[in-house]
């Protein structure tokens, strides 16, 4: 009732003129109090509708035909009698088409909301996978960086320049999990192949 019929102490400034479908809070409150929060439809026998639920504001003069939005040109009606009045004014076929259009809009809005919710769920599911992949990539990069750092000092001690040491470390970057000695030998093969001796063949014993 506070939201629909403005049963509150304060009213916001009017957002539109007297023409249009928007009904300012002060007018809604006036109409609600005047009609007693009850449908104003009266049957041919003089009996007033007793409904106090699903009430709507009904323009006595339809907005489509230039009706004004003022307290004396509005009244409360339950949804059923408001629809009945609209059918009497515009015809049953016209109102059926309007209701069908409204249902289609509602269904499309629900479908869009469902698609957005599904897309959000899929995005949330991808986040842990992306985070895990990113963590693995960072670990691998750290391992490769550590591998390069521990090869370079050894090459520097062997007399290679800083640039040559970095080039040698790059030559053994494809085997980051290999022992340090093996990676140093791999770097030396690329930098100075003649400096790396091959293991001597083992002499075979007497037959």
Model description:
The chain is mainly alpha-helical and 207 residues long. It is 56% helix and 5% strand. It has helices at residues 2-5, 25-35, 79-90, 92-157, 162-171, 180-191, and strands at residues 55-59, 74-78. It has a two-stranded antiparallel sheet. Helix 4 (92-157) crosses helix 6 and helix 5 crosses helix 6. The protein is rod-shaped and about 115 Å long.
Topology record:
Elements: H1 2-5, H2 25-35, E1 55-59, E2 74-78, H3 79-90, H4 92-157, H5 162-171, H6 180-191
Antiparallel strand pairs: 1-2
Keywords summarizing the entry:
single chain, 207 residues, mainly alpha, 2 strands, rod-shaped
Order of helices and strands: HHEEHHHH
Shape: rod-shaped
Widest beta sheet: strand line-up = 1-2
Structural class of the secondary structure composition? Answer: mainly alpha
Q: Please give the share of residues in helix.
A: 55-70%
Give the C-alpha Rg. Answer: 42 Å
Mean pLDDT across the residues is 77
The strand count comes to 2
Distance between the termini: 109 Å
Task: Quickly describe the structure.
The chain has helices spanning 2-5, 25-35, 79-90, 92-157, 162-171, 180-191; strands at residues 55-59, 74-78. The protein has 207 residues and is mainly α. The radius of gyration is 42 Å and the shape is rod-shaped.
């Amino acid at each position: 009732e506070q939201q629909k019929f403005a049963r509150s102490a304060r009213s916001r400034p009017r957002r539109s003129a007297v023409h249009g479908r928007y009904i300012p809070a002060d007018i809604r409150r006036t109409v609600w109090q005047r009609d007693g929060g009850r449908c104003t439809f009266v049957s041919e026998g003089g009996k007033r509708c007793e409904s106090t639920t699903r009430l709507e504001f009904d323009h006595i003069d339809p907005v489509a035909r230039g009706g004004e939005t003022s307290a004396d040109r509005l009244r409360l009606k339950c949804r059923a009698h408001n629809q009945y009045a609209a059918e009497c004014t515009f015809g049953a076929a016209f109102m059926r088409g309007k209701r069908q259009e409204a249902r289609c809009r509602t269904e499309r809005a629900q479908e869009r909301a469902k698609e957005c919710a599904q897309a959000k769920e899929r995005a949330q599911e991808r986040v842990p996978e992306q985070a895990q992949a990113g963590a693995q990539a960072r670990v691998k990069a750290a391992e490769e960086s550590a591998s390069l750092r521990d090869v370079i000092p050894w090459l520097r001690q062997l007399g290679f320049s800083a640039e040559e040491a970095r080039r040698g470390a790059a030559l053994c970057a494809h085997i980051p999990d290999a022992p340090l000695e093996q990676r140093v030998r791999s770097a030396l093969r690329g930098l100075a192949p003649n400096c790396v001796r091959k293991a001597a063949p083992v002499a075979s014993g007497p037959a």
